[in-house]
Amino acid sequence: MARPISASEAREVGVLVQQWVKAKGYRLPHRTLQEAAENIGTDSVKLHRYCINSLGMDFRAWRTSLRVEDAKRLLIEEPDLPSSHIARMVGVQDRSNFFRQFTDITGLSPDKWRQQHSKK
């Protein structure tokens, strides 16, 4: 378990993370925690501690959940876009990884999820 983050560090990193989410920084195809932390404006140790202690999951799992939520929105708003294109839009370059991640979180493939949730 990560060493607890101090309240002041959590506030500091929390503000930066909120700005990053609002700017859809999770769509950038960062490969490492270090790259993402640099983009967010903090260091990787603080970001790791913030995710574990404040969000209850590691950075990769949290970023994946953000991407899947964004993809769900796009699947509905952009019904003519192939799900593989939406995968790239939300920052997942590999189609099979996107389908696996999406299915792990939602229980459905992106295309089946779209079918069940589209307005008819």
Domain module tally: 2
Q: What's the mean pLDDT score?
A: 93
How many helices? 7
- According to CATH, what is the topology of the largest domain? Arc Repressor Mutant, subunit A
- The secondary-structure class comes to mainly alpha
Taken in chain order, the helices and strands follow as: HHHHHHH
Taking the sheet with the most strands, its summary is: none
Strand-residue proportion: under 5%
Name of the CATH homologous superfamily of the largest domain: Homeodomain-like
Coarse shape? elongated
CATH architectural arrangement of the largest domain = Orthogonal Bundle
Distance between the termini: 46 Å
Rg from Cα: 15 Å
Q: Could you characterize the architecture of this molecule?
A:
The chain is mostly helical and 120 residues long. The protein folds into 2 domains: 7-56, no CATH class; 64-117, Arc Repressor Mutant, subunit A, CATH 1.10.10.60. It has 7 helices and no strands. Helix 1 crosses helix 3, helix 4 packs across helix 5 (83-89) and helix 4 packs across helix 7 (110-117). 27% of the residues are buried.
How does the SSE layout of this entry go?
Elements: H1 7-22, H2 33-40, H3 44-55, H4 59-77, H5 83-89, H6 95-106, H7 110-117
Annotation keywords:
single chain; 120 residues; mainly alpha; Arc Repressor Mutant, subunit A; 2 domains; 7 helices; 0% strand
